[in-house]
Design a protein that fits this description.
Shape: globular
Radius of gyration: 15 Å
Strand order of the largest sheet: 2-1-3-4-5
Strand content: 5-15%
Largest sheet: 5 strands, parallel
Number of helices: 6
Structural class: alpha/beta
Helix content: 40-55%
Order of helices and strands: EHEHEHEHEHH
Number of strands: 5
Length: 134
Amino acid sequence: RAFYRNRPFPLFMLVFGLFISITLCIIRFYPHTFLLPDYNQSSMEELIGHFNEYDLVLSSRFHALLTAAWFRCRVIALSLSSKISQLAEELDVEMIEPDFDNALFEKKVHSSRVVDIERLNKILKRLMDVSVTC
């Protein structure tokens, strides 16, 4: 199953066109399992539990990418900002730029992988060290 998370209401033509292109690519690779969660849930389990159902997550959203990584999903970052590009580098995951084509998308899907748990633990430790000093 695949999960794609982008801004809920694309405001710019580039983002809207990108949203349509990615949606069509996902449907091509995952024709019967394209899922979008209900974000009007009340509990943490309801809000993020759906990540257990995905093997691949594409997102331009920081927290969706991190959550997917911790849930052991394959991750592809949709790079619309430097923040997402930096996170993709930090996680060592595939990244798609706005000017992608179908062949590149297919390559990224096939080469996507689960984030190494040691990498996630190092990031967590670094964040915990920072929070202790604050």
